[in-house]
Amino acid sequence: MSLLQRLVSLFSAHEAPPPQEIRVVPCTGLDVAARAVVLTTGLVIDARLDSKTLEQTLAKLIEHKFPRAGARLAYRNGVYEFHVPRTFAAGTPPFAFTVEDHPEPYRSPTRPELPIHRPASAQPSVQPLPALEVYFRSRECPTTLAGFLVPNMPSLHVHVAVFDDLTYIGLTSSHICFDALGTRTLLYAWTRLLMGDALDTIQGMEWDTAPFDAFTGPPVVAHPHGWFDLGFFSQLYFALRLLWPIAKDPKEVVHIVRVPKVFLDDAKREIMDDLKRQGSSEWVGSSDVLMAWWLKTVYSHRRPDDTTPIHVHFPADLRDKPIFAGAAALPTPYIHNAVLGIPIPPLPANAFSGARLGALALHIRRAVLAFDADPAQIAADLRWRCTHPAKALFPCPPRGEYTGQTNWRKARFGALDFSGACRGATRGPGARGRVVFCVGLSSSRTRVPYRGNGIVLMEDEDAVWMRQVRGAKDWESIRRSGTVAFS
After folding, report:
1. Do residues 125 and 103 make contact, with C-beta atoms less than 8 angstroms apart?
2. What is the pLDDT of residues 277-320, one digit of tens each?
3. Of 4, 78, 96, 430, which one's alpha carbon is 20 to 30 angstroms from that of 55?
4. Strand order in the sheet with 72-76
5. Cα 115 vs. chain centroid, distance in angstroms?
6. 243 C-beta neighbours (distance < 10 Å), count
């Protein structure tokens, strides 16, 4: 189909009513806010898995428990919608599934080396992200929102690359359809089915689940806390401030950061001991320490006179917040977007170099606790976003700088057990079939400014792994500062 034909089909489909065999669910403001990005969650499993078993069990799970995962994404009458087939068949499969079979071990001079195969260190280290996308996405997989809006295009694409010793599984969708914890919900249900759990024992998500419908209506706040509604000239200045560093440092580089757990544990213990000596009852978590260490690492090379305020945003899962019916947490699984950002009070760039790690970690922990302690503010911010799904807000004022740091540790991707798909292998604890590495990949038709942002991908027995994006010159400045080792 040519580009012109696709455009004609898209625009003609906008006003047409959906077919009778389709159930329609409008996307929420949280979904629409993520519309520009196509997200791939890539898993590396330490065993040769049976692709047929993977495909059959996932199809069964989506058909009977998570039909919204089998939806088609549509844009009709100015609204983004999930079009959920009433039945799945050959013409309307629940997902696109592609397989590449390699009857040999993965390790080869012609293939990228996995970070888990590199020498480990007791100290944090930065290393290049290997080019693994080819093993997580097929050539036919859409990489833009427009690609997922093609009629009858499944919202979920699963690509499996099988080797004798490793299996790659990539799950790709428009970010409208899944967030990280939504992906986790589907993956954990899938592995339970693989391990032999009865389908009836798995809690699913009904096709008409709509927990955010209650948050529509006139907003009670001007804009969500920590975000900025800028006028025309302020937006122009914001864009110039954003583009100027990119013009000076045009090459965007993605690196993997490995932070040993022993390093985090020692730093956390020292901070907690210091708080006790001060007679304080406050505390910090390992994720607070991780983020404080990272912020200190990447901003310590800034000039002593650089007072640019650094605005930090941490996406927070809303599923466990007491904001739903009966002032309770969400009682059912939910695969779509359910996050709002926690804004950390800004600090000037030159403050990070001299700041104590414990003070930064406590600064972060206090902001997280304040967010959790105010469900009314969370509900008000959520109502604004659900009422203004497409309105652009800005993460910092024009003279500021921002970083978004997403934490997938709660998703526990490293604990997933796919041993139930190992052909002829022993299943259960200790068996091969565990996730040994996780990668988050993203793409967009528009040039989304990813730089400065990052994801805590996963943790294994020894370390926490992050994916961070910065300019090549900025990475070099960090390397020269000596705050972290580069492999």
Report:
1. no
2. 999 999 999 999 999 999 999 999 999 999 999 999 999 999 99
3. 430
4. 22-26, 79-85, 72-76
5. 20
6. 11
Neighbouring residues of 195: CB distance < 8 A, sequence distance ≥ 6: 417, 419, 420, 427, 428
SS3 255: strand
Could you list the beta-strand ranges (E) of 206-283: 252-260
- The string of pLDDT tens digits covering residues 434-467 is 999 999 999 887 766 678 999 999 999 999 999 9
Rounded Cα distance, 434 and 429, in Å? 10
Give residue 14's pLDDT.
47
Domains in the chain, start-ordered, CATH in brackets? 3-111+121-213 (3.30.559.10), 219-410+446-486 (3.30.559.10)
Angle, vertex CA 282, rays to CA 280 and CA 288, nearest 5: 135
Task: Identify the band that residue 430 occupies on the pLDDT scale cut at 50, 70 and 90.
Answer: low
Confidence check: pLDDT of 357 > 70 = yes
DSSP 249: S
For 193-242, how does the pLDDT look when each residue is reduced to its tens digit (9 = 90+)? 999 999 999 999 999 999 999 998 888 888 899 999 999 999 999 999 88
What pLDDT is stored for residue 449 in this prediction? 65
d(CA 135, CA 98): 11
For the record, the structure tokens of 241 come out as: 């401030």
Say what angle helices 180-194 and 51-64 make with each other, to 10 degrees: 110
Using the predicted structure, report yes or no on whether residue 103 has a pLDDT greater than 70: yes
CA distances from 233 to 237, 393, 397, 436 (A): 6, 14, 12, 48
Whether residue 13 is predicted with pLDDT greater than 50 in this model: the reply is no
**219 contacts 387 by C-beta, under 8 angstroms:** yes
Determine the angle formed by the axes of helices 286-299 and 472-481, rounding to 10 degrees.
100
**CA–CA dist 220, 232 (Å, integer):** 24
Q: Give the number of other Cβ atoms within 10 Å of residue 467's Cβ.
A: 23
C-alpha–C-alpha distance, residues 348 and 478, integer Å: 18
Looking up tokens 């759990």, which residue turns up? 197
DSSP state, 274?
H
Torsion of CA 105, 111, 115, 119, to 10 degrees: 80
Strands 252-260 and 463-471: what pairing?
antiparallel
Distances (CA, A) of 281 to 254, 284, 332, 442: 39, 10, 35, 41
pTM over 0.85: yes
Backbone angles phi, psi at 278, to 5 degrees: -85, -5
Region 404-420 average pLDDT: 95
141-158 per-position pLDDT tens digit:
999 999 999 999 999 999
DSSP state for residue 301 in the 8-state scheme: T
Q: Tell me if 53 sits within 8 A of 196, measured CB to CB.
A: no
